[in-house]
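A note from the maintainers: we've had questions about how concatenated examples are separated. There is no special marker in the raw files; a new sequence line simply starts the next protein. For clarity in this README we add a label.
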Amino acid sequence: MRRRWLAAAAFAAILSGCFNDSEYAPAVRSVDETQTEAGFATPSEITAGATEAFVHGRNFEPSVTISWNGKPQVTKFVTGNLAQITLDEGLTDNIGSGAVTADNGDGFISRATTTAIVPGNFEIKTISPASAKAGAAALTLTLKGSGFANFTSNTLTPLVRWNGAELAANIVNAITVTAQVPANLLAVPGNVSVSIRICSQPGCNFFNESNSVTFTVLP
């Protein structure tokens, strides 16, 4: 019965030109990475590289689907005021923003809420590969983390430090840095400390450095 009444109300809302502003329509207030109700008051933003997020709002039904720039995301209904989404792979790899909407599937669709993708802390979270056998050929090292977009400018240069040796680095996006590791650095078994150092030009003066992670050269 309520569904029929909602459908009628939705049709009436369309005719009146206030479809998204109906008191029965879902509304997205903010998107972030916390499940607490405090999310209502926080900026609508998520960290680059995030794979999940919480959508705070109102009038969510168990059938609710959250979309990012019009593309539906895997959605889990939590309460009438909260939904959890699993973000498509690659969606938050770059700094920017997206329009987030909620659709209950009954004709009521929320207005879009702009959500920013922000850099996050400067840190390495994973490296790939994490090991290689001694005597292996040169390889491309991929470092995943956050905060890399803070240093994409003409005056800042990223370097990957390999037990103190500096390797030229390439910032692929806000969460990915790559570097070429020559074969001579893979000749001797042992653990290698890997970090990212940012230098300012000219002269490549020290600017900032990430945490270190371990690469293992196997016997």
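[label: protein 2]
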Amino acid sequence: MRTSDQRNDSSAADIGGPATAMPRSTSSQIAEGIGRLAGSSTGIARQADSRYRFAIIIVLGAVATAGYLYYGQPNVAEPPTPTQAAAPDAGTITVHVSGAVARPGLVEIPWSGRVADAIAAAGGSMPTADLTTLNLAASLRDGEQVVVPQVSRASISGTSYPSDGRVRLNAASATELEAIPGVGPVLAGRIVAVREERGGFTTLEDLLDVAGIGEAKLAAMRDLVVVP
């Protein structure tokens, strides 16, 4: 026969048996839940890590592509920008006018000047000039020469060459004066300049006023020229 204490222990054992069994089952479930949560956290961490690496790869690829596009392309020189042709200098040009003109030599005319302008700058043509052989409207360039021809001596009505062959000092051009022995282009130009300044020569001795003509040269020219 069990005592009261034994019955109490037995009752406590009956009551405690199931009570102690539930906590162990609950602990297992909690542990299992924690394990699953840890596994899920690990998976999430792995996925996040994978996404992070993927994002880094994308950023690095974009940087590499941009660098190649900026630095890797060959430098291609841009074609020169077409420029309009420079307008000619609105200045003057220098041409040489010789032949049957009043003042042969170097003259300056506008850059758009014509042959007629050059002849005018040289004092105009002489009466013996043959302008029919020239294109008076032709354009000129710097450094060109214009030669004004003269009509043949046979067609001259005694203006520069008398019948005896002497040169008329007051009618001859500088080119015709160069036909006199000892008279070159420079001296012929001086003779024409003094003649125009004085309005013509009156005597042969007036040639002594021309620089470069002395008594000896005048004596050599005396029989070759005539002053009407």
